[in-house]
Specification:
The complex is a heterodimer of chains A (98) and B (249). With 98 residues, chain A is mainly α. Helices cover 71% and strands 0% of the residues of chain A. Classes of the chains: A mainly alpha (98), B mainly alpha (249).
Chain lengths: 98, 249
Amino acid sequence: MSEHIVQPRIYITIFLALMVGTAITVLAAFVDFPGPLNAVVALTIAVIKATLVVLYFMHVRYSGRLIWLVILAALLWLAIMFAITFSDYWTRMWQPPF
Amino acid sequence: MAEGLASTHEHPAHHPALQHHFENMEQQREAGTLGMWVFLVTEIMFFGGMFLAYTLYRYRYPAAFVSASNHLDITLGAVNTGVLIVSSFTMAMAVYATQVGKRQITIICLILTMILGAAFLGIKAVEYREKYRDSLVPGRLIPWRPFNPEVAKPGEKDPHKLHLIEGANVRNVELFYWIYFAMTGMHALHMIIGLGIMTVILIMAWRGRFSPEYHAPVEISGLYWHFVDIVWIFLFPLLYLLGRHLEGH
C-alpha cells in the first residue's frame, strides 16, 4: 500500500476544529446541565477531539487494517480494565465501596 | 515513490536507508509505523491506569474533587491546551513538508513544534509554582512545605485559599492533588522526552537525511507527539473543567 500524503488544507481544517472544540468545552463547563450531563458533554468533546487527531494528524484514516486492529485492541483492553474494576467496586455491597 | 527511487540513484538496487531485512522502503516504513503504534498501546494502558484511579476516586469523593479542581487555573490550562494543539498542527506540517521534500519548511515546523512544547512546560511550571505557594503539593513531596492549604471561610474570596464546597474534606482534596501531580507530571515527562526526540529529528533534518522516499523517523516521532497531545486533551477537561458550574456553591 503506497503512502497517502495528507494535504495541508485538511490539517488546517482539523486544527481549527480542535480549537473550536476547546473553546466549546471551556464554555460548556460553566453551564449547569442537569444531572451528570456536564461530564458527558466534556468527555464527548474530548473523544471527538482525540478521534480527529488520531484519524487525520496520525493518518490512521489512511492506514491499513493492521493499524486499525492494533488501536481497536488497545481500546478493548482499556474497556476490560475499566469494566472489571468497576464491576468489583460497584458490587461489594456488604462494605463501603472504598 | 518507486520512480523517485530509480531516478535519484546511480545504483537503483536500494535506497541507502533501507535495512537489509526489508523488501523495500514501503515495507520498512509500514513496519516502523506498526511498531510505534504497538508502543503507543502500552502507553494507552499506562495512562489508562491513572485515568482509572482518577475515575474511581472522583466517583467516591465528588465534592472534594470539585473543590480541588476549581482551585486550578483554568486560563493557564486552556492556554496550554491551545499551545499543544498548535504544536500538533506544526508537527503534522513537518511530516507533510518531508513527504514533499521541502527541507527548510520541515526544519521551521520542527523548531516551532519544539518552541511550543517548551512553552507548554513553562506554563506548567508556573502552575506548579502556584500550587507550591498555596501548600497544595500532596504529602511530604516537598519536605519543607507539606500539604497544608489554607481553607477559605464561607463568603471569603481569597484566590490563594482553598474553597471547599459542601461535603468536601481536605484529606480527599489531597487525594485529588496526588492524582493531579502524578498525571500532569507523567505527561510533562513525556513532553520532555518528546523535546529530546524532536532535537534528534531536527538534527537529522538539518543534515538533509530525509527525503520523500525516507522520512519514517519524522512520521513516527509525530505519532508520539500527537499521542502526548491526546493525553492532554483528556486531562484538561477532567482535571480543570468538571465541576466548574458548581463554583461558589
